[in-house]
Specification:
279 residues; single chain; signal; 4-stranded antiparallel beta sheet; 15 strands; 2 domains; Nuclear Transport Factor 2, Chain: A; globular
Length: 279
């Protein structure tokens, strides 16, 4: 009896060791890289929001697949990816028997990798695993294992929306438009320098002022002095823990545009008592 009991214990230990070997520890999360959202949707509209930034609008009635680098929008602490599915509109509502499906992945990728080669952090699949109703928001929360290098979150103050703040943001946009129309590369750079330096850092690229000047010169040559500002009924949206203010028209489009079809999105932060272009 003791021999049988001994053999049973040995076999149990052996089996538990095999099971442990069959379930290897997940790989350690990276300490740097790129936060990437990939998505696809069929026969249903898909809207994606990352900490308030619109990754994908829900207005498109078409099937799609794509990806977006969201390093610019990753915050210290809790981050939120919001997802909403909605019915197709008009004739596109009829799917012809095709199944309704959607998938969103948050992946950490490295330079030179394809997104599907990166490490999966969060995943949303509908209707396979996510039980959500059309028209309802779903949140994927996560604490980033690392923060992309950025000075923004250390310097940007929390913005309290007031009429005075909104008016000063429009005044800043007006000043920017006038500066763009001067075609003076150094003056233009002075207004976008924080953005140029910080977004280079976030993307792990060295900031080279001469290259930035060259890029601005190319833009001014192509666009000229045709920039105009639309101040009719602007829309103010706070994002990224109220540290960034987005200024658009009511449709969500930029309010600074040119006659040649170019447009400049306006993402502002309040730093050192003034508005600064940050993204």
């Amino acid at each position: 009896m003791q021999r049988i009991l001994f053999l049973f214990i040995v076999m149990s230990l052996f089996l538990s060791q095999i099971q442990a070997e069959e379930k290897p520890e997940p790989p350690a999360l990276p300490k740097e890289g790129y936060y990437i959202i990939t998505y696809k949707n069929y026969s249903v509209n898909l809207e994606i929001d990352a900490n308030g930034y619109e990754v994908r609008s829900g207005n498109s009635n078409e099937d799609s697949s794509g990806q977006a680098d969201i390093n610019y929008w990753i915050l210290p602490g809790k981050n939120k990816i919001k997802i909403r599915l909605s019915e197709r509109k008009g004739k596109q509502k009829e799917t012809g028997g095709l199944s309704k499906e959607a998938e969103v992945k948050l992946i950490i990728g490295q330079k030179g990798q394809f997104p599907d080669e990166g490490q999966l952090l969060k995943q949303f699949q509908w209707p396979k695993t996510a039980e959500v109703k059309l028209g309802e928001w779903t949140e994927l929360e996560f604490d980033p294992p690392f923060l992309p290098p950025s000075q923004l979150w250390k310097q940007a103050e929390t913005i309290t929306p007031t009429k005075e703040k909104e008016s000063s943001a429009i005044a800043f946009a007006n000043e920017l438009t006038k500066t763009l129309n001067t075609k003076d590369t150094k003056k233009i750079l002075s207004m976008i320098q924080f953005r140029a330096q910080d977004t280079s850092e976030v993307r792990y690229y060295p900031y080279v002022e001469a290259d930035e000047i060259k890029s601005i010169a190319g833009m001014t040559k192509a666009i000229g002095s045709s920039w105009k500002l639309d101040t009719k009924n602007p829309k103010f949206t706070l994002l990224c823990n109220n540290q960034i203010l987005s200024v658009t028209n009511q449709k969500g489009d930029p309010i600074i545009t040119s006659k040649k079809g170019a447009a400049i999105p306006l993402y502002l932060s309040w730093i050192g008592g003034k508005w600064v272009i940050v993204r």
